[in-house]
User: Fold this.
Amino acid sequence: MTSLTTIQKHLIGVLMMLVFMAVVPVFVTQRYFLGEIIVFMIWASVAVQWNVLMGHAGVFSLGQMLIFAVGAYTAAMSMTYLGISPWAALPVSAVVAAAAAFVIGLACLRLGPAYVALLTFAISYMVYVLIITDTACYTTVAGGCQRFFGGTTGFSRLEDLGFREMLRGNWIIGNYFTVLVIFTISLVASIIVIHGRLGLAFRALSDSPVYAAARGLNRTRSQLIAFVVTAFFTGLTGAVFAAHFRSTGPSLFDFSTLLFILAMVIVGGLRSTWGPVFGAAMMMILVEVAKGMGDVRNTVIGVVLVLFVLFLPKGIAGLTSRLFNRFGSKPANAQDPASGAV
Amino acid sequence: MDALIQILVSGLTLGAMYALGAVGLALTFGTMRMFNMAHGVFMTIGAYAAFSTVTYFGAPLLVALLMGILAGGVIGALMHLLVVQFMLETEDFEINVLVATAGVGILLQDFLLKVYGGYPFSQPVQVEGIFRIGGVAVTYQSVVILVLATVLISALAWALTRTKFGMAIRATAMNREAAMLMGVRTSRTYLQVLIIAGMLAGAAGILISSLSTLSPEMGQNPAVRAFVICVVAGLGSVTGAGIAAIALGLFEAAIQYYFGVRYGLPLMLALVVVVLIWRPAGLFGTQEVVRS
Assistant:
């Protein structure tokens, strides 16, 4: 089985998902639930990219929310200061996020995995501190002080995507499909990276680092490429986040947000292809259900992280493939060495 | 001259607190290759335990200090017994344990938030008053911080070099298999290491909160600094972490004096990145260089 057909198989999966997600708004009409699904798609896109980076490329970055925030802030700032439309801000933000990742990657990626994790974490914390301690007003917006990087309040009342004029009361449908398109692009990109040449390089590097290096594979360079590519799509998702909510702020840097997305990746299963999508869905549902029991979101995240690492380190994806094996039938893509699971 | 004394005093105070936090972290990584993301929350727990001992039981300061240190040790032991020991032999231990301890961290932080609320308290475990060196006012509290940090770190250095269990810890850090063959019970060594790291973190938490306030997320900032110190020293190098902590404390004090408090952490981090480009294994590290 060639790698081309593997990609095709996954792309058919994407197509099925796209059709399913496209009919959802026909049945789900409450704005609240549509909003929740939009949030799900945004986080799922971030989780998918993080899984490419952490599970496949072996870059244990804890700076993914920083990259996401770079995208969101670039969108917000270019809309506020330069007055460009949200649609133009999307690609600009993605490119800026990729550039930021390139610089961070150059500084970090020569180091071992634990160093990468700590440095990326420290850099995001540093950016957070710089943003919230900024007190000098840059301009005045609507009579209020607007700090250059938003300060503790961030940016709000950004221009919307234009669907409020076009669709009136159903504007959220427009946002829904915009986010769906970006989520799909991100997912397709992750599939191409995982099952394409770059993914092959990472598989070789993790199977036998010495042999792969002897064959001319440059680990740091491959990881840098993966870091920049995933940052591009993470930043794009961040920009659409800012455009959907018409605001952004330093709460993106919250430790709990970072762990919420990390939990999606871990619950879904590191090194899988589709795991993070299901992980994201599970975490969203779990937190939604937990809302009924009071303010227990962070407790749920903590418990889930610990339990999954202890008992199901390969996540849902690992569990389903184990179940398939037990009952003797092959999972749909058992021949696919890259996915290892779903 | 006054500027120099001022920088020296606040730099050494900062450095001593950072050292307390960083040394425990470095010891854990050096011995078990485990990076404890909950380290910052251990500090917070130590601080709150000392606070509660004074506020609710009216105990003397020394008892409160001991209770805080003890609480750090207990939470370290619990984390080993309930979580870490089951993961030791798994593949991807380094990543998994980072994720799991991060989960423990957010769990404990949320717990503290539920129990004490988000309102910032002031730490009662501290010594009031100032005296002057030249024209510089020095608080007694910074003297307490310096003395306590020196005592605790010396005690750790003595234990690691002179006692049997300390030598077992160092042997495990050097070569786990060989240590096991020599009769070291490594799982017990790991437990001891986490208890020691927790106790040091608890002490660091009390001291840090005495300079600012108590809040459930107070541990995050010093923990990030401890991470950075461990990275720049070379992960796992305990002596290196101590030296780097003092050096970075002085550097940060100088930056804060000349540029403002806001730039302390960012410039410190910039320095660290420069150091790492020059020496990827850290200043005192020996391994961890990734070739190709």
Observations:
- Residues 44 and 219 of chain B are 5 Å apart (CA to CA).
